[in-house]
């Protein structure tokens, strides 16, 4: 089976019903995506599938074949952090950090479809669980990431 992950195609010899999370972590050593609940509830295992935030702990790997998979390892480009990652650092969001790659993937997906979300839109789109209770900082960081993205776009337009 072939999987396209972070722009690269990988060939795997795995059972079709293996959860995608297992394929990412155990077969491909992409361990930034975490295992939390295993029942599609906490969001620690979130990646983007064709741009949609998707929990991978119960998703069969064959359901991801033919789709563009993006994991936390593919968010920074050529060593440059994304606006979301920069905002996460600016707000010092993580506590233990375990849930945070899933949170960042959910935030990336939200901002791709809703560039300037309200608090309500953030709360309804990012339903991941953080046992350390970083929700307030996540919300603040999403607003900052939205601002960073808009500033980057404006400066790109200004340089044309
Ligand atoms: S580990 Fe997948 S949702 Fe919790
Ligand atoms: S930062 Fe610890 S679980 Fe979220």
Task: Please explain how this structure is put together.
The chain is an alpha+beta fold and 160 residues long. It has 5 helices and 5 strands, in the order E-E-H-E-E-E-H-H-H-H. A 5-stranded mixed β-sheet has the order 2-1-5-3-4, with helices on one face. Strand 1 (2-5) and strand 2 form a beta hairpin. The longest helix is centred in the last third of the chain and has 24 residues, at 135-158. Bound molecules: FE2/S2 (inorganic) cluster (FES) (2 copies). One FE2/S2 (inorganic) cluster binds at residues 94-100, 130-132, 134. One FE2/S2 (inorganic) cluster binds next to loops.
Which descriptors apply to this entry?
alpha+beta, Ubiquitin-like (UB roll), globular, DNA polymerase, domain 1, 5 helices, 160 residues, single chain, five-stranded mixed sheet, binds FE2/S2 (inorganic) cluster
What are the SSEs and their pairings?
Layout: E1 2-5, E2 8-11, H1 20-27, E3 46-49, E4 52-55, E5 68-70, H2 83-90, H3 100-113, H4 119-125, H5 135-158
Parallel strand pairs: 1-5
Antiparallel strand pairs: 1-2, 3-4, 3-5
Helix pairs in contact: 2-5
One FE2/S2 (inorganic) cluster binds at residues 35-38, 40-45, 55, 57.
Tally of DSSP β-strands: 5
Q: What structural class should be given to the helix and strand makeup?
A: alpha+beta
**CATH level 1 name of the largest domain:** Mainly Alpha
| H/E element sequence | EEHEEEHHHH
CATH topology of the largest domain: DNA polymerase, domain 1
Helix content: 25-40%
